[in-house]
């Protein structure tokens, strides 16, 4: 599952226009991926909200779903789009 997650994440970030060098640096520094449960209320709330948004939505590929969800604005990140926040953070950290 970890390998699939990393592969899809890399493909998605490249499709979003993140430079390959930044993606590689990020994934190298991230190290091993651990997938597990959470009980953090803000994370659970955001996940529930995202599930509600895409309940009846249909996409040809999970990357399309990711792009759609990451283009929505969220209060926890000052009403910005997640992908834009992530890109800015990568640029600041690795450029």
Mean pLDDT: 91
Q: Biggest sheet, open or closed, and with what strands and sense?
A: none
Number of strands: 0
Distance between the termini: 30 Å
What helical percentage do the residues reach?
55-70%
Q: What portion of residues belong to β-strands?
A: under 5%
How big is the Rg? Answer: 14 Å
Helix/strand-derived category reads mainly alpha
Q: Please provide the ordered H/E string of secondary-structure elements.
A: HHHHH
Shape: globular
Note the total helix count. Answer: 5
Which stretches are low in confidence, meaning pLDDT under 50 for 5 or more residues running? Answer: none
Characterization of the model:
With 95 residues, this protein is mostly helical. The chain has helices spanning 2-15, 20-30, 41-53, 62-69, 82-94. It is globular. The mean pLDDT is 91.
Keywords:
95 residues, single chain, mainly alpha
Question: Helices, strands, pairings?
Answer:
Blueprint: H1 2-15, H2 20-30, H3 41-53, H4 62-69, H5 82-94
Helix pairs in contact: 1-2
């Amino acid at each position: 599952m970890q390998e699939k997650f990393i592969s899809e994440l890399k493909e998605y970030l490249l499709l979003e226009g993140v430079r390959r060098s930044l993606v590689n640096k990020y994934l190298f520094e991230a190290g091993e991926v651990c997938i597990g449960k959470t009980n953090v209320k803000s994370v659970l709330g955001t996940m529930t909200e995202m599930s509600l948004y895409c309940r009846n939505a249909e996409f040809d590929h999970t990357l399309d779903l990711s792009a759609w969800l990451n283009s929505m604005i969220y209060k926890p990140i000052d009403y910005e789009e997640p992908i834009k926040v992530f890109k800015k953070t990568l640029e600041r950290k690795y450029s």
